[in-house]
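Below is how a single chain appears once it has passed through the pipeline. First comes the sequence as given, then the structure the pipeline wrote out for it. We keep one example in the README because the format questions we get most often are answered faster by looking than by reading.
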Amino acid sequence: HLPPSLPGWEAIASMAPGTQASQADLTGSKEPIVNQREPRAGGPELEPEELERDENPRDDGATKPLGNPAAVLHGVQDLRFEEAPPLPRLPEAGHVRVRVRAVGICRTDIHFLHHGKVGNLATLQAPMVIGHEAAGDVVEVGEGVGNLQVGDAVAVEPGVPCACSQQTLAGRYNLDPGVKFLATPPVHGALAKYIDHPAAFCHKIPEGLSHEQGAMCEPLSVGVHAVRRGRVSPGCGVAIIGAGPIGLVSIMAAK
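Resulting structure:
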């Protein structure tokens, strides 16, 4: 589904994993669409309009549209640029609202686009916002959040486990079978203007790193995990099959 005003959505569909969607891919403009500060220097400067909120909430407690455009996958080869599902008026307790600045395109996004599923792991059942490799700026803080404040640049950790599962309590929360992972049905992803996410899974980006680099923390963690599991140490010889983004970050971690 390619809206007439956005003739270049097919560019995102064919984009290599780990790359950044840009305004040039959509309209021919050279201005970036998902990374609007490149590189980040001296911390983010939030536009006043980004902090404005609708003063007329709907009866169900959700906001009227925030102006929150997103890449929403409706089915195989049916990616649409449209309003994201509504966010609550304020972030839930323990959550922050993030103005997304950069999102990587993962191979799982490509699989969902072309096949509607990723093996036997997950199948698209309803429209879903794609993207899980994300970074951005905190624009609103929910009750009880003490580790972040408005203006912090953060890298988003996409997998949120159950705090009481056996795997989480054993220190292996990434293996929690009930983990809620961005852009894995039925959980919406991060390729939107705004997302709400648990503050405990939003990590501050150090000064001097860009939002694009922050978005690459998630794929980098794959390489770090592989090196740890492979017990790679100085002097080891390693074979890394494939030189895509995951292969490259695995090389970086091995070095």
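The helical segments are 9-13, 23-27, 107-115, 166-169, 211-215, 217-229, 245-254.

See the next section for the split statistics.
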